Amino acid sequence: MAPYKPSAALTTRLARLQPAFRKALHWIIFVAGLVAGYLAGRYGRGVDRMLADCAQQRTLLYAKLRVLRAQRTALVDFRRREIASRQHPGSLQNDDLSLDVNSLGGGSLGWSLPPGVWEPTSDLTRKGLDGNPYEDTEFRGCCLLTLTVGGSNPRRVDDMIARFPEKEFQVLLFHYETPNANEWREYPWFTRVLHVTAEKQTKWWFAKRFLHPAIVSTFEYIFVWDEDLGLEQFNPMSFISILRRNSLLIAQPALNNTDVHWSITRRMPGQAEMHVERSPDETREDCPKGVEDPPCREYVEIMAPVLAGHAWECVWAMIQNDLVHGWGLDIHWHQCARQLLWAHEPAGALGDDTVRRGVGVVDTQFIEHLGGQTLVFGIDNQEQARASLDERRYQEWEVFEARWGSWEPILS
Predict the structure, then answer these.
(1) Cis peptide before 269 (omega within 30 of 0)
(2) Residue 198: which residues within 8 A CB-CB, separation 6 or more?
(3) Which residues contact 370 (CB under 8 A, 6 or more apart)?
(4) Which among 328, 330, 333, 334 is positioned nearest to 402, based on CA atoms?
(5) DSSP annotation string for 108-153
(6) Which residues contact 390 (CB under 8 A, 6 or more apart)?
(7) Which of 83, 85, 128, 228 fits a 20 to 30 Å CA distance from 164?
(8) What is the dihedral of CA 324, 328, 334, 337, to 10 degrees?
(9) Nearest to residue 254, comparing CAs of 244, 271, 176?
(10) How far is residue 202 from each of residues 94, 226, 229, 306, measured CA to CA in Å?
(11) Shortest CA distance to 326 belongs to which of 153, 178, 148?
(12) Given CA atoms 52, 53, 54, 58 in this order, what sign does their dihedral have?
């Protein structure tokens, strides 16, 4: 079949119409240009803003994707090293099992800065306002003492601070009541120690917000203590020596009280310098989870804990952002010591398996719990206020246990 060929008449007619089509097309383009110009003049700024917002959102999206990839890589690597440490104890170096917080996103927007641009740690030493920053003095002691105190009993605080050598201990006071400056300033340590004040807040509220691991990483041990403790028979440096000698990561002085909340914290005189489990003479009712678990073994109470720097990094992460009383922490923070010891110590290096877990109560250095209505000073009906506090504490404990429950079988 032959291809179609238009007739000569049709070709002539199309040739005559072509200039008309071309002219009409030019008019359409001209009108479209006028409309576009009018719209750009009236709405151009809004369009530019919209395009700029789109570009910014795209940049943020790409940044978030990079952070998510970094998080995934860091978590996978951390899990790999954790498994390796359990299969081959002692094969990892000291910092191999620490999860790099900086690799998990950096700031609140997820920006990550290259190494060398920023200093990853800081401290609590006061800095000079002028002069060479490299010539600022550094605190060369071993430890940090934090006390959460009210405003009505500075003499008791003075008695406690006096027990801790100034060259070895930096002191940070958390005030849950605004102190009377004239009354407190008479003590010689007032201008030396650091003060943080927030009305009606708890020790663990302060700790979560002002004891970030990057700030306290220079301290070998961190004392996170209540204010109602008697230290007449307590020597801090002797206590530190016992912690070092027994490789304790979480510890407390024994309580020289007959009435204690958990029997494991009671002093056991005449035996070893420390213990890691309750006396066998105690009843099993003191062990809600069993005799092999806290609070009957590997237990230190939240009233007067002393934590090694590496252990604090783990415990600080365990403190809940939205809970303030800390109830339940002492039931589970032995897991921090276990993880660190599994990672850093060869099997059998510390001898007795109970000591190897790094949690203990020191008997030869003991304190007394003096008691007192902390957090309810200045309230007329203290009994009702105490009941309200306890109700909140138990509710927080239930929340914490519910959150922790799904992870405990994995970490145990």
Answers:
(1) no
(2) 174, 175, 176, 205, 206
(3) 156, 228, 229, 230
(4) 328
(5) TT---PPTTSS-S---S----SSS-GGG------SEEEEEEE-SS-
(6) none
(7) 128
(8) -20
(9) 271
(10) 33, 10, 16, 18
(11) 148
(12) positive
Q: Residue range 253-274: average pLDDT? A: 86
Contact between 146 and 193 under an 8 Å Cβ cutoff? The reply is: no
Write out the two tokens for 389.
């506090």
Neighbours of 81 (CB within 10 A): 16
Type and span of the H or E element at 355:
helix 353-356
Identify each DSSP E strand in 35-129 by its residue range: none
Give the DSSP letter string of 344-397. Answer: HS-TTTTSSHHHHT-EEEEEEEEEEE----TT-TT-S-HHHHHHHHHHHHHHHH
HSE-CB at 265 with a 13 A cutoff on CA atoms is 24
Cβ pair 246, 306 in contact under 8 A: no
Nearest to 195, CA basis, from 211, 177, 216, 172: 172
Kindly state the tokens that stand for 242: 């016992």
Which long-range contacts does 99-103 make (Cβ < 8 Å, 24+ apart)? 99/74, 99/75, 100/74, 101/213, 101/214, 103/70, 103/71, 103/73, 103/74
Q: Report the alpha-carbon distance of residue 324 to residue 327 in Å, rounded.
A: 9
For the segment 376-394, the average pLDDT, to the nearest whole number, is 77
User: What is the predicted pLDDT for the residue at 348?
Assistant: 46
DSSP assigned state of 99? -
pLDDT tens-digit series, residues 184-230: 999 999 999 999 999 999 999 999 999 999 999 889 999 999 999 99
pLDDT tens, position by position, 136-195: 888 889 999 999 999 878 999 999 999 999 999 999 999 999 888 888 999 999 999 999
| CA 46 to chain CA centroid, nearest Å | 44
**Closest residue by Cα to residue 291 from 270, 276, 306, 302:** 276
Q: Which helix (H) or strand (E) holds 252?
A: strand 250-255
How many of the other CB atoms lie within 10 Å of CB of 89? 17
Distance (Å, whole) CA 26 – CA 37: 16
